[in-house]
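User: Structure tokens for both sequences below?

Assistant:
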Amino acid sequence: MRIGPYALQNNLAVAPMAGVTDRPFRRLCRRLDAGYAISEMVASDPRLRNTEKSRRRIDHAGEAAPIAVQIAGAFPDFLADAARYNVDRGAQIIDINMGCPAKKVCNAAAGSALLSNEPLAAAIVAAVVKAVAVPVTLKMRTGPTPQTRNAVRVARMAEDAGIAALAIHGRSRACAFAGSVEYETIAAVKQAVRIPVFANGDIDTPQCARTILALTGADGLMIGRAAQGRPWIFREVAHFLATGEELPPPTVAEARALILDHLADHYAFHGEALGVRTARKHLAWYTEALAGGVELRREVNIAETAAVQVASVERYFDRLAALNDRLVSLRIPANDPGARPLRVPSGSVWETATPRVREALAA
């Protein structure tokens, strides 16, 4: 899969997530077979550029190419200037955020709120594409509401303006992260454009990943929340797509080493005081489906130093290792008959589905 001149390692991307996909997390996911990672969204308002948070978000030291930065805002001139500013500081791909459903973002007429103002969305895309010589991509949703889907129209506009690739979260702004994903809308977008399309939304197992590629005909998959506490999902999905075989869960020893490496990188990047506080959510995600996770979370949430947090993690994994060689999840797999089923699309998109998609669906 390619974005402009860049050939990606594979067709799996880490979704940009505010407060999650900082440089240490992106590097960890790339190490575990994510082919592409996009930064947390960076505000386009130039008044916010010199804050410590903004400086960390545009720090890409040691990251593998291509380096992608997501920018957010509602003013074409600001976004164009933000694109130039980030390219000057190492960004090789600029991604425009039209997918975030957070109230504070949408209340500023940015993120997925832009889908309700197509002329402004078009002006932003045109301004950013014109401003930089690197590929510009767009992350979006299916529309403002399920009743006012406009993803196909916005996608065609974006392609005509020079957007190099699209990522579609298969829910509307109004749905946020609730309800079924509209994979049929992603498929309609893919059939309507010639540029690469990433499908995004509820991709949480290797089997689910293969099914969604078949349902949508997408070129790639963008995984977000399922990678929280489980960054090895990229390795599992890549292996399954390539071979049809499931990888076993990580060994306790491997998970321990990965998590301790992540913590060390996290503390070094954020500084100890902030790093200890922000590491708590990652440790909660790592252990939410593991035996004894509640006790560990109590310990790390009151820890005030990195050394105390790390010691708690080491003791916890010593206890896990005494129970099993591999991580044993207490969570019901998504492909279990009693768990959430994939929505089966219907309608004209599927009546005109390509033979390749039909063949995959029948497999």
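Moving on to the next sequence.
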Amino acid sequence: MALGAQPAAVLRSTLGQGARLAVIGLVVGVVCSMVLSRFVASLLYGVSPGDVPTYAAVAALLGGVALIAAYAPAHRASRVDPMVALRYD
């Protein structure tokens, strides 16, 4: 903000960084869960180890939670006063 960025650009940039981390975590998590679900298949009741709708639902839920969690700092960063940011540094 102190260098002339618009609030919308700061919000978009911060949310983009959070979304990028969330997508990386979701991809790694889904791959690991698909590999490890073969070992714990006996613990799953009524769900096969490769159940795509279950993986999609969990990924969508966790992705939504991650975006909501990234929105709070993004919103705060877009509302910061440039003079306060300059004084802090």
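User: Anything stand out in the second?

Assistant: The helical segments are 7-36, 52-78, 82-88.
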